Amino acid sequence: MCRSALIPGWGHLYLGHRSKAVLFGLGFLVSGLLTVFSPSAATGLAGLITLGESPQTLDGFSVIPGDHSLHLLVDGLITLLFGLVCLTIYLVNLWQAFMLGRTKYHIQRIHGFLLVSLLPGFLLLVFFIILPFLLTLTVGFTDYRSPDHLPPRALVDWVGLQNFGKLISLDLWKQTLLSVGLWNIIWAVGVTGLSYFLGMGMSGLLANHPIPWPNFWKILFLLPYALPTFFSLLIMRSLFSGTGPINLGLGALGLPALPFLTDPLLARITIILVNVWLTTPFFLLLTSSARTTVGSELYEAAALDGAGSWTQFRRVTLPLVWETTLPVVLLSFFFQFNNLAGIYLLTEGNPSSVNLHYAGQTDILISWIYKLTLFQGQYNLAAVLTTVLACFLGTAGVLMRRRMTEL
Amino acid sequence: MSRTKRWPLIGLLILAGSGIVYPLFWIVLSAFRSGNALYSADFHLSELTLDHFYRLFTATEFPLWFLNTLELAGLHMVAGLILTALTAFSFSRLTFKGKGLTQSLVLILQIFPTFLSMLALFILLDRWNLLNSYFGLILVYLAGQLPFSTWMVKGYMDALPRSLDEAARIDGASDYQVFTRVILPLSTPVLGVVALADFTLPWFDFVFQSLLLHGDRKTLAVGVLEWLHSPSGQQFPLFAAACLLIALPVMLMFLIIQKFLNPVMMVERFKT
């Protein structure tokens, strides 16, 4: 163990685990070197604390470079991450050496192929999911926003919990958060629920009744699923627009034009229905294959007990299909909950409202965050909202995982 | 069932069918009719024309955007297939410490869309000088797709009988050989689904493309959104024509893959 504490891997080598020793030694060396020699290890951690002292300044026409707060923040985080990896390797190495020395502790043989096959995925996970996540979290504690705090011309500073406080104490923000959040839930439940039961009904029609050309209908009903959603949504947007073909048709019938996408309530209904149009085919496909897993003997037994077709559906089909499909329904619910395209491409979150801060009546949380980031430059508050949303999703995800292991 | 009871049912089917077909019919019509009139009620056969398609290729940057998107989609598909197959194989067939925890993490990560941290990704790619490069964008896409596709492929591989790889191992096959000779050939159906998902993603996603790409790197999603936001609104028939041309390859791919699309397979992957 003492050997391992001095040079990671030495202990393993001493006890005859050569491949493991090389792994620990190299892993420690590489991550250690990366920590010490990362782009800004010297300023990295100091920079992470101060976020820069002097902004870029102009001297006549020449630019005198100053500290770029965001670069300091990113570099600092990366250095921290490398350091953590290095420390973890060291501690695991120490622990294993300790166990090895004490008992006849058996360690697993390391597969060379395992390393090669997991490393790319692991690196992607760390640098493109976890690091962005940490960065978002930290931005929420700074004053990074336009127009006053945009690097490199100005510095960004830590402001502690000020942004979170704003969200809770300022009425305008609080009200917007509550109203957008409520609509977000209605939207996700509405779209997922409606399309599930529509898909269920359609698969029942196709499965239980002799209709002419069943395959023709099936392909027809699956069409919206095959179309790129990006384009179907844009097509729908022009269909429902103020002077679009649907209003033209209504006019031809002598009916008044309807503000499908500009009246708050009507826009919400339209946007749900359009997304139901897009999602139903998926549930049609899902429920028709789930139906095939229900054994026919169950129906025969039910028929013997005198159950009509409605009772059979309610007591046999529905519970069994529901149980089989629940995991996918839950995933689909969360997809819908964060369906930025489904909202943004259709209405851009509009119609706008004076009661909502930078948000429209059909905005869900993620589209609100998108607009705050892209058009308003309210980066720090967008980051805070993202953190709130991520906490909600994380909790829901853990609950979902637990429910699924029970099944 | 009696004939009289069939008619309401068929009526219902036709109603639902027309609800689905109408928007598609309308976009086809706009693409082929002459003139720039956005919405006109009457229509004659003589109005049919290929003008918009011609203009699409000669007067706009559509061909460039199309090729860009194709390049992006192709590269992403290849990289995604390799990465997913490798990761899923290690989860399904190899043992390592912390496997259970990683699996839970992969499952939970599926409900976090990548664009949740779009701002952070922008800052990071800017720091690494990967803005406006397909390499950076593909890395972002790969990371985002990985949890979902790994989970799906892993579920499929779990269902393949273990006796197969045990037999191969008795014959002296290494991990690598079990992977390439046994598991990979048997997993082609599910990898087809992954290929479809990875190929189509760059045709739909506008969030990252509008955030990260510009100039001659522009893709279809970015270009088309810009058309629609152009004040004239004159571009609509062009948009319709573009829609048709883009929908075709994607739908073709879908038709090829669709016999492998079995949602129950996606259900099964949760039963671990």
Q: Could you explain how this protein is built, in words?
A:
The complex is a heterodimer of chains A (407) and B (272). With 407 residues, chain A is an all-alpha fold. Chain A has helices spanning 2-6, 10-14, 18-37, 41-50, 69-102, 112-139, 162-169, 171-208, 214-226, 229-240, 245-252, 264-292, 296-304, 309-337, 340-347, 365-376, 379-406, and strands at residues 57-59, 62-64. Chain A has a two-stranded antiparallel sheet. In chain A, strand 1 and strand 2 form a beta hairpin. Chain B has 272 residues and is mainly alpha-helical. In chain B, helix 6 packs antiparallel against helix 9 (188-204) and helix 9 (188-204) runs antiparallel to helix 12. The chains are: A mainly alpha (407), B mainly alpha (272).
Lateral strand order in the biggest sheet of chain A: 1-2
Helix content range of chain A: over 70%
What's the total number of strands of chain A?
2
Biggest interface: chains and residue counts?
A: A-B, 92 and 86 residues
Mean pLDDT of chain B: 81
What sequence of helices (H) and strands (E) makes up the elements of chain B? HHHHHHHHHHHHH
3D shape of chain A = flat
* Strand percent estimate of chain B: under 5%
Could you describe the largest sheet of chain A, including whether it forms a barrel? Answer: 2 strands, antiparallel
Mean pLDDT of chain A equals: 80
Multimeric organization: heterodimer
Principal-axes shape call of chain B: globular
List SSEs of chain A in N-to-C order.
Answer: HHHHEEHHHHHHHHHHHHH
Kindly report how far apart the N and C termini of chain B lie.
43 Å
Helix tally of chain A? Answer: 17
Helix content of chain B: over 70%
Using only C-alpha atoms, the radius of gyration of chain A works out to: 29 Å
Instruction: Give the terminus-to-terminus CA distance of chain A.
Output: 44 Å
